[in-house]
Amino acid sequence: MEAVCIKMEHKIMQEMETCIEEENYSTKTEFIREAVREKIKAIRKERALRMLEANFGKGGKSKYTDAEFERLREKVAEEYLKKRDLILD
Fold it and tell me: Angle at which helices 10-22 and 28-56 pack, to 10 degrees?
């Protein structure tokens, strides 16, 4: 494992410590690792969605509402990432 040193504003540290206490994280490190994992997962998902949209687009008129289309896009992206072992749990 590699070590990373970061500086954060006092207000953010206070908010983080409150979350750590309220959500029962054992350490700041555990909290930060999970936050980084979630951010990586979100970035991968957004990249997959952009790639799908670039390749298939939204097209003209659709029989789906925007909310339904978004759910379909997310489902396709999750399946795409899963097939390539890119989803973090």
Answer: 100
